[in-house]
Amino acid sequence: MDRKQFLKLLGTSVATGFLVRSFEPKQAAAMGLTALQFSGTTLADWKTVLGDGLWTAPNQVPVNNADIQTDQTSTKSILRANISQRGVMAHNITYKSLIDQDLFEYIHTTSYEFRLPYIPQTNSGIQNAQTFEGGFFIWDGSQTQLDYGCAFQWVLNPWMSTFGTVYSWSSDGATQGWIPCGFLQPDTNWHQYQMMVDYHNQTCRLTIDQTSIPICFTATPKVGWGTETAARFQTEIISIWPGNTSIAPSHAVEIRNWNWNLQPYT
Fold first, then answer.
1. Alpha-carbon distances, residue 22 vs 12, 140, 142, 200 (angstroms)
2. Domain holding 163: CATH number?
3. What DSSP designation does 45 have?
4. Mean pLDDT to the nearest integer, 231-243
5. Could you tell me the pTM of the whole model?
6. What is the Cα–Cα distance from 24 to 193, expressed in whole angstroms?
7. Cα angle vertex 47, ends 88, 50, to 5°?
8. Contact 181, 215 (CB under 8 A)
9. Does residue 101 form part of some domain?
10. Does 152 fall in a domain?
C-alpha cells in the first residue's frame, strides 16, 4: 500500500506464511552470545531522517530535511515535524541501529516514555498532528531481503473519525497496510511503551501503560537496501495533512528514558 494512503483501513489480518531466513537453533553459550542492554535518558545518539509519509501543497517547496528535527534537552528529546509550519506534511523518523550478523539470535525488548505536549484539536492553531508511530525491525540483507518486525501507529488527526485509534503494521511480503488494533485517548500525560520482537517464534508483543495491544509480526520487502543484518529501534511523527493550504501546524512528541534489551535464545 502506498504510504500516502497509510490510514486506509484493512479488513484482514496478516498472513504468517512469508519467507523466513534459514537458521538452526543453537545454544547461546556455544555461540558466545550474552545479554546486551542499551539505554539513555534522551535520543542524543540516535539518527533523524525524513520518512515517506509526505505531502506538498501546490506552490510549496517539496518536503525536505529542513522540515524536521529532533531537539535534545537534559531530560528528554522532542521530535518535531513541519517546523516552519508550511503547507506540507512532514515525516520525522528518529532511530537507533545496530549491525551484527547475530541479531536474529536474540529476543529484542524495547521501551521508552512518550508524551504529547499539546492535545490535537480542530481549533488548536499552531500545533496539530497526523500520527505518532514506533516500531522495531531487523533487516535480513544476506538471505531473504525482508525487513522483519512490527510497528504501531497512533492516529492523532482530530478531524478523523479514527482519532485515538492505534493501528498495527501488517505485511506478509506481498500485501501490506495498517489494521486497527486498539485505542489510546490523546492527552498530555506521559505514557510507557514497550515492544518485544521474537524472530524465531515470529511473534511480537506491544504494551502501552501495561495494557497489551495485539500487533502483527511482519515481513516487508525493501528495494535498494544493503546486504548486512541490521536492527532498528525507531520512533516517528507525521505532521497534519495540509490539503492545498500554504500553511499548516507543526507537530511535536516528547520521548525520554529509552531501553533496548537483547536476550539470547537458550
1. 28, 11, 11, 10
2. 2.60.120
3. T
4. 98
5. 0.90
6. 32
7. 20
8. yes
9. yes
10. yes
